[in-house]
Amino acid sequence: MSEPEFEAFLRQLATSIGLNYAQKQSVAAELRDHLEQRLEELTQQGVPRETACQQALAEFGDATVLAHDFTLPHQRRQRRQAVRYTLSSVTIVVTTFVMASFYWPVQRPEPFGQIGAQQTPGLFDAVAKASLSDIDEADAQRAEIEAKLAQRSLEVAFTDTPFSDAVDFIATALDLDIVLDRPVFEENGIDLASPVNLKIRQGNVSAKTALRLMLRQIGMQDSAAVVIRDGFIDLTSIDRSQEVQVYNCRDLLEGVVVQRTPHGGIGGGVMGGGGGGVGGGGGMFQIPPEGLMSGMTGVALGQFAGGGVGGDLGTGGQDHSATTDAGAVLMHVIQEATRPTEWMDSDGSGGTITEFDGLITIGHTQQVHERVADLLKKLRAAKKAEMKN
Amino acid sequence: MSNRFGPDLLRGSLDLMVLSVLAGGSTYGYDLQQKLLAASNELVQLQAGTLYPLLHRLEADKLIRSRWEASTGRKRKWYEITAAGKQRLSTQTAEWDRYVACIESMLAPIRSAAPHPV
Questions:
Q1: What is the third-level CATH fold of A156-241?
Q2: 3-state DSSP assignment of residue B77
Q3: Res A140: pLDDT
């Protein structure tokens, strides 16, 4: 059992030290071991126990100064990480703008039908591939964090543990950076030291659910969200969780043709690439022409995933206007299947959704992004099943 | 301890000292402190309050790594030098040698000009 003086010193150190909960515990255990060994040595030399305690503690100096010395290297490392995140974000934004500036004039319709003479297909392909690699990289990073959040290997036993310490513990266990948006908690009158009581045995609850349970315990379940940012997790307000994400839906739209018909709206089918096969038959999507003309108002969805795999509509070539039409329908599906009212705010405060060459860009809250990701997963499964039949 | 080194002189060479001890094998904080004392003929007594933040800094810089182990009968944090640490030790040793040679050459005239005992 450690000396009370040692424990008092270690508590004071823990209060001042700018490390997470697990790191504080580790530092305290290491210093406790040193203090006890030093005490043992001094008492063996004949130094009275009380004096030996004082001497051992004196060799560590002032707890506040020591806390600062421990915190400094970690702060430096966090600053370096922050600079790296900022630089990578700026690089992605600049790269995207540069790519867009190359690509935009190529796709814009030219007057007097001169497009064909000025297009450079090779450049288009190169730009498309480069842009996709950026998206893929961001997707991979996001997927990695999502996988960690979905882990059920977490084992915690929090008893009146301060919320911020509990969050730090989970961050260390997952090897992730979790940032608390302090002003959001302050605005809601929540103290970050609010006690959390949570016992989770390994395999029962995902890390993300654990974080949400903790938010519920301190009364922030309707005000805060677990948001994946550029390489880290942000515990911030639901409003601030609004972020832009690009969903690569080319695989879903590939082969889908949406055709305008004089009376029956737009009918579609999956391209067969060659002749023969079963024609039309409902297609992947059906949509009346006025739907596309009026910003998707009044779109009637028809027989999703019920279409015929037909060769009669397929040309095998890349038709961007067809992709855009199908993309418009997919955007509507997304809006309908998630939370439609949140997309329809007349003051423009709702979410945004646009489509560009099979890439659907959505600006919305984390919750809606999760629903979108889930929906796209189900659509892919449905399409895959249909292609097998 | 008048024959011990002043803190200003020690400050720039503590990393080198700690890395050189760890190059001899992994150890824990208290033992490392004792080894430094012994290796320096008791001239370098690194205070615990200086040693542990230094170890954590070296670990943050990936020059050393740590693990918790109970091989001595109690759970202790052991440190060992990394490949990057060995590289740093090598370059710092070479730099130190050049520094010593430089100081030696600067102090040589002073030594030769010192009054000879009558």
A1: Phage tail protein beta-alpha-beta fold (3.55.50)
A2: strand
A3: 79
Domain with CATH 3.55.50.30 in chain A: 156-241
pLDDT for residue B51 is more than 80: yes
CA angle B85, A23, A214 (to 5 degrees): 145
Taking the C-alpha atoms of residue A91 and residue A87, their distance in angstroms, rounded to an integer, is 6
End-to-end, the C-alpha distance of chain A in Å comes to 70
CATH topology of domain B7-111: Arc Repressor Mutant, subunit A (1.10.10)
- Residues from chain A contacting residue B75 (CB–CB below 8 Å): 29, 33
pLDDT value, residue A123: 47
pLDDT of residue A152: 83
The gap between the terminal CA atoms of chain B, to the nearest Å, is 31
- Reference A369, options A185, A207, A139, A120; nearest CA is A139
Q: Are A241 and A366 in contact (CB under 8 A)?
A: yes
User: Residues in chain B whose beta carbon is closer than 8 A to a beta carbon of chain A?
Assistant: 28-30, 47-49, 52-53, 56-57, 60-61, 74-77
Q: Rounded to whole angstroms, how far apart are CA atoms A330 and B19?
A: 61
